[in-house]
Amino acid sequence: MTEALFLNPVFQDRIWGGTKLHDYFGYDIPSDTTGEDWAISAHPNGPSVIKNGEFKGKTLAELWEEKPALFGNPKEAVFPLLTKILDANTDLSVQVHPNDEYAKVHENGELGKTECWYIIDCEPGAELIYGHKAVSRAEFSSWAKNGEWDKLLRKVTIKPGEFYYVPSGTIHALGTGTLVLETQQSSDTTYRVYDYDRKDADGNLRELHLDKAIDVTTAPHVDAKLDIQTETHGGLTETTFVSNDFFSVYKWEVDGKAEFAAKAPYTLVSILDGEAELTIDGTKQSIKKGDHFILPNDVKTWEIEGKMTAIVSNPPVK
């Protein structure tokens, strides 16, 4: 039967995590320092498990390998995308990610990591670190090695509903009191630049990766140019945040009945608010805040009726 693939969340404990994944979404989290929900993941460090239908109990990675037709018989060796929800109860480390070419050489063939953030919620006055103020790699290296963080790092005040695109090479960090949905390449490679001299549970300073970070950081920083477009069709308001060689990311705001046609071989959907009814080939299913699912390749059209907000992504259409 043609149907959506719903996934169980994979929770990750983090030194900076909190309880918002429970408080906001109602998830049964494993600890009071739960920092990440790997919501749609085939990465070996946190593979999602299908929770419904014919493939219940299989991981997304297993499906990608065993049932490629579900994804349009892709050429990529690994599922290319990863959807997370992050609860920054305290500041995340200042970090940067490599591109595909650098990661392939230095990280055992891992993908690089270009990502983007949709701000679900944040405290008043919450900030991101987004970029830096050095005019060259040499200046970046000097300021970083001397710990001149106030001089180096660029801070941006944020509010709910905003979108930030974070290409590989971008210095960044989520700040305290921020809940975001992150769409990224399926990679777990992070180079920490600065971590506020925090110690882990064993009393050790967390590892930094300053030399690799200097290698991959874009200097000078350049803000990503986005062409955000919003269109309304019937009961759907669709905002296109970004569409490039890594992914396309949209926001669906449904109020009433909305009809959809597939734009790509498969579509990743995360419900951030509300509830609705999803209809595929005449079969109806309730969907609600906190649900994450994939519409596979054999789902060409569908309807959603209700009131809900979702962040949606798909691979590039080549």
UniProtKB/TrEMBL annotation:
Residues 237-314 form the Mannose-6-phosphate isomerase cupin domain. Residues 6-105 form the Phosphomannose isomerase type I catalytic domain. The keyword Isomerase applies. Its EC number is 5.3.1.8. InterPro entries: Carb_Metab_Reg_Kinase/Isom (IPR051804), Man6P_Isoase-1 (IPR001250), Man6P_isomerase_Firm_short (IPR014628), MPI_cupin_dom (IPR049071), PMI_typeI_cat (IPR046457), RmlC-like_jellyroll (IPR014710), RmlC_Cupin_sf (IPR011051). Zn(2+) binds at residues 97, 115, 172. It comes from the Bacteria. Keywords: Isomerase, Metal-binding, Zinc. One of its GO terms (molecular function) is mannose-6-phosphate isomerase activity. Belongs to the mannose-6-phosphate isomerase type 1 family. It comes from Listeria welshimeri serovar 6b (strain ATCC 35897 / DSM 20650 / CCUG 15529 / CIP 8149 / NCTC 11857 / SLCC 5334 / V8). One of its GO terms (biological process) is carbohydrate metabolic process. It is an enzyme of class 5 (isomerase). This is Mannose-6-phosphate isomerase.
